[in-house]
Design a protein that fits this description.
594 residues; Carbamate kinase; VC0802-like; twelve-stranded antiparallel β-sheet; eight-stranded mixed β-sheet; 17 helices; binds adenosine-5'-diphosphate; binds aspartyl phosphate; aspartate kinase; aspartate kinase activity; transferase; amino-acid biosynthesis; Asp_kin_monofn
């Protein structure tokens, strides 16, 4: 008999009628012959109401009590949903996180799932019940109630689907699927039939609130197909699976996090170990940083800029303060009126000109780019909050995301073409791990790379577009791009990496660009290598970048450039030290490496 996990988000259980409608959906599935586990979130905005109540009591509530409070939201809904099912003459039992055996670590408000015991659920299902499980919550070793972080019910649902070996995991929500961007922000957004785990992971962590990114980590690890669909209709929604909708389209989605903050730590001595010290202090607070850019100035001092969600600004500034003196930094600046606009696509890595197309779209819309970072399947630009809506619209239009790609495939076509890969061994190996443990799939090194840096890049719209169009015309393949924020003189620096064999040609183009736009100088050097750590959950496991930096600092290796994504962390270093560094990193991560 097949088993289905159905998750109903807050909007889908917001009132009595919606609760009854969710109950009917579950009963219908049971009567169609499935065993049904429901995962339910707090009604409507109840979690926000509870947060607000806590903030009226005091500024800094104990984390344990906060989780005790927030978990009550889900407890209300599961009881009401079970009652609704009873009233419709079907059998249901509601269970809290603790009762479904959801064991987590003790990081209150950001707990990670360690294990789930399924016996009780299986027994209740055998007895003909619909099991109604509370999302978003678990218990630690001492039976303290923990919560998984905002949006965590998706993670509960996918994790349950994984351990129960469910045939389907349906996420019922107030949209009828995953769109090319948030349809509330952009009406022309298009619903996609299929999106890949990798794309959804990036989109979710870059602002697509429709799914919790950790739930996609689970789905990818265990190969759980997710069906995102509407609570209010029966139309087919979007399948999140291993494959992408198109195999050619460079960009498949755009996302925006409107509420970002940029922090710049100024004048850090440019010696090995400094970035490690800074990022270790921030990682210890479990803050996931993004868009890390280091600008090395002429005086041997570096300005390190990065972004964090605005809600984490206070914690991050406090963490920096605790190490500022030790770092030898001359100051810290921040801007909390910035937004991050990103494009994501699995096919991007194999194509040239995608970055310059995005920069051109922003330039034509008059949007100034404050920072840029790229990784293998995403490009992010930091813009002022005021220009963010315009920026999102411009990139969505530039990549024609409102149109179905000519080679788009439906889920049924993809399924029919799938080979019968033997994934069982992998799944068994993963199941033996702590469920949300870090999983690394590879650590590799690419040498024969070169870096080009332009200093004194004017901070105005259109420069990045012009630069990368000129580089593209010269047919130079650019790998990493970072544009930093220069706190001192109002200009910025742009660095990019190319193959060493393209260095001379790149420098020639860079000099022409510098002359055209009155930039301060151009520097370029070969003899660098890129170390790549690939896996699942690299950004949410904030310790990965820290450990990587520690390994490099141990050999007195300076990190020249870094980028992070959900799938990879890349560090650019001196090629002479690359082999030794790769070995050290492999040893340090041995436990997590598949
Ligand atoms: N790319 C996207 N596709 C679909 N919805 C998105 C996307 N990005 C953001 N969203 C937003 O996510 C919302 C659904 O998530 P959420 O409100 O958390 O639902 P639930 O309460 O069901 O968990 C949608 O209403 C939509 O505005
Ligand atoms: N109630 C929690 C958990 C959750 O996942 O909610 P939703 O499914 O409504 O996003 C929250 O608001 O964060």
């Amino acid at each position: 008999m097949s088993l289905i996990v159905q998750k109903f988000g807050g909007t889908s259980v917001a009132d009595v009628e919606k609760i009854q409608s969710a109950a009917r959906k579950a009963i219908r599935a049971q009567r169609a012959g499935h065993r049904v586990v429901m995962v339910v979130s707090a009604m409507g905005k109840n979690t926000d109401t509870l947060l607000d109540l806590a903030s009226q009591i005091g500024d800094d509530p104990p984390a344990r009590e906060m989780d005790m409070l927030l978990s009550t939201g889900e407890q209300v809904s599961v009881a009401l949903v079970a009652m609704a099912i009873h009233s419709m003459d079907a059998k249901a039992v509601s269970l809290t996180g603790g009762q479904i055996g959801m064991k987590t670590d003790n990081s209150f408000s950001k707990a990670r799932i360690e294990s789930i015991s399924t016996e009780r659920i299986e027994r209740l299902l055998d007895d003909g019940n619909i099991v109604v499980a509370a999302g978003f919550q678990g218990v630690d070793d001492e039976l303290n109630i923990t919560t998984l972080g905002r949006g965590g019910s998706d993670t509960t649902a996918v994790a349950l689907a994984a351990v129960l070996g469910a045939d389907a995991c349906e996420i019922y929500t107030d949209v009828d699927g995953v769109y090319t961007t948030d349809p509330r922000k952009l009406p022309e957004a298009r619903r996609v039939e299929v999106v890949s785990y990798d794309e959804m992971l990036e989109l979710a962590s870059l602002g697509a609130g429709v799914m919790h990114s950790r739930s996609i980590e689970f789905a990818k690890k265990f190969g759980v197909p997710i069906h995102v669909r509407s609570s209010f209709s029966d139309t087919e929604g979007t399948m999140i699976v291993a494959e992408s909708e198109s195999t050619t389209q460079p960009v498949s989605g755009a996302a925006m996090t409107a509420e970002e903050a940029r922090i710049t730590v100024l004048g850090v001595p440019d010696v090995p170990g400094k970035s490690q010290q800074l990022f270790a202090a921030i990682a210890a607070c479990k803050v996931a940083i993004d868009m890390v850019v280091q600008n090395v100035g002429q005086s041997g001092k570096a300005d390190i800029s990065f972004t964090v969600p605005r809600g984490e600004l206070k914690t991050t500034l406090a963490a920096i303060d605790s190490v500022k003196v030790d770092l030898g930094a001359s100051g810290v600046t921040h801007d909390d009126k910035v937004s991050k606009v990103s494009v994501v696509g699995s096919n991007m890595a194999a194509q040239t000109g995608v970055a310059s197309q995005m920069f051109r779209a922003l330039a034509d819309a008059g949007v100034n780019i404050q920072m840029i970072t790229t990784s293998e399947i995403k490009i992010s630009a930091l813009v002022s909050k005021q220009q963010s809506a315009k920026a999102l619209q411009a990139v969505h239009a530039a990549f024609g995301l409102h149109q179905r790609p000519a080679d788009a495939k439906s889920w049924s076509q993809i399924k029919a073409e799938r080979g019968k890969a033997d994934v069982q061994t992998l799944v068994d190996r993963l199941r033996a791990d702590a469920l949300e443990a870090l999983t690394l799939t590879g650590i590799s090194m690419t040498d024969n790379q070169a870096r080009v840096t332009l200093h004194g890049v004017p901070d105005k719209p259109g420069i990045a577009a012009d630069m990368f169009e000129m580089i593209g015309k010269a047919e130079i393949f650019v790998d990493m791009i970072v544009q930093g924020y220069d706190g001192e003189d109002g200009s910025t620096s742009v660095s990019f990496t190319v193959r060493e064999s393209d260095l001379a040609a790149s420098l020639k183009v860079a000099q022409a660009i510098a002359k055209k736009h009155g930039m301060r100088d151009v520097q370029g050097a070969g003899g660098i290598a890129k170390i790549t750590v690939s896996g699942i959950g690299l950004r949410s496991h904030t310790s990965v970048a820290t450990l990587l930096f520690e390994c490099l600092a141990a050999d007195q290796t300076n990190v020249e450039m870094i980028n992070t994504s959900e799938l990879q962390v890349n560090a650019v270093i001196d090629a002479a030290k690359a082999n030794q560094a790769t070995e050290r990193i492999k040893k340090a991560f041995a436990d997590s490496l598949l």
